[in-house]
Amino acid sequence: MNLCIVQARMGSNRLPGKVMKELNDIPMILYTLNRLKRSNFIDCLVLATSTLPEDDVLAERVQREGFEVFRGHGANVLKRYADCCREYGGTIVVRVTGDCPLIDPSMIDYALLYRRMHDLDYASTQSIRGLDTEVMTAAALFLAEEKADEDKYTEHVTSYMYTHPRLFKVGHAPLGEAYQKPYRLCVDEEADFEVVKRVISALGEMHCSDLEVIRYLDAHPDLASYNRHVKQKKLGE
């Protein structure tokens, strides 16, 4: 079973409550989940949040909209993923973060197919930040949980896999030049949210493709560079 786990919490350090900020009158987390529903190969879609009281409002809203919710460890996100996988019985796990509302379900499907074709333990699409995804076997997830002993691994779920290629068969699905541009479409800071909000407002359609998004940014370089100063956290930070 292909299990897609979307991680999200209310306690973001840089932009608290970001996953409940609204895009076209819809909380960002629901925008993300509704786009993912259109995947052809996801069998089960679950929000994985923490058991902390601050995340009650997130869990309740998502459940009210009919989505599955798993609640687990707050800081150890790797354990949260592994426990969620055990709960739902996934054999293949897709990792998505709830701050990527423009993730294209076709990219998920591509990653799943690529992993299967090459019999990989872990596969990623190294795309524009916010349009990328990762896929792994449940066995790889559980092995990483067993072996990982540093925060830089337990906080980032897949980092142990791609930094230990002797233990895991790792691959990266090739993508065209359109996906290699220096745009940011994940929401870490207010500037990121502004970019995503303007793109969504301009395109109008919730289910626009990632290529439509890229073409819009190509045509609006001022917007595309609006959040270029935001730095992605590095492993271990």
TrEMBL record:
It comes from the Bacteria. InterPro entries: Cytidylyl_trans, Nucleotide-diphossugar_trans. SUPFAM superfamilies: Nucleotide-diphospho-sugar transferases. CDD domains: GT2_SpsF. This is Glycosyltransferase family protein. It comes from Anoxynatronum sibiricum.
